[in-house]
Amino acid sequence: MYNFHIADDHPLFRNAILGVIKSNYPDSVVSQSISLESTIQELEKNDETDLLLLDLHMPGCKDLFGLIMVREKFPSIPVAIISAVEEPNTISRAMGHGACGYIPKSCSPQKIQSAIQSMLEGNHWVPDEFTHTLTPVANEERDLAAKIATLTPQQYRVLCLLREGWLNKQIGFEMGVTEATVKAHITAIFRKLGISNRTQAVIMMKDF
């Protein structure tokens, strides 16, 4: 019997994955979540998950933060990315940051099942057309990912808005918090990343 967790905020795709799992692994246990926060909460309840199917862009998972955070907190849980994004660079980075597989949402149910089975057997899986396009992640990016993994989801959201040039007042309005809270987040971000100003944050994050 396998334990699966589906982390995706789109109910139609969650149901599609659930259908594939239940058709091929009828005795399996499947839990679900719709955000990074709820995913972490569910994984904390069951650290014996055999495979996490993680949407790349559900709430809290901007960029690769969700994958990086989950890999840091639950290194023993295999993580397969499920995403509508089919860019070779994104797939390479996801695999380089610890994913055991990358399943495009355009895959047929049969291919999804084949991918899941391969990963349950301990293999890495990407679609055949991408197997020869994977490139390694630079050491600098790995080092930055390790620092980013220490941020909270809120702090990472603030960092992304800083990267986009938002002012503290704008960030506070967007997130529904006070400017004082934003400043506290920024102070913590700078400390964790080992930087001292916004310019350094923008430069550090420009290619992440």
From TrEMBL:
Residues 144-208 form the HTH luxR-type domain. One of its GO terms (molecular function) is DNA binding. The keyword DNA-binding applies. SMART domains: HTH_LUXR, REC. One of its GO terms (biological process) is regulation of DNA-templated transcription. It holds the Pfam family GerE. Residues 3-120 form the Response regulatory domain. CDD domains: LuxR_C_like, REC_NarL-like. This is Regulator in two-component regulatory system. The lineage of its organism: Bacteria, Pseudomonadati, Pseudomonadota, Gammaproteobacteria, Cellvibrionales.
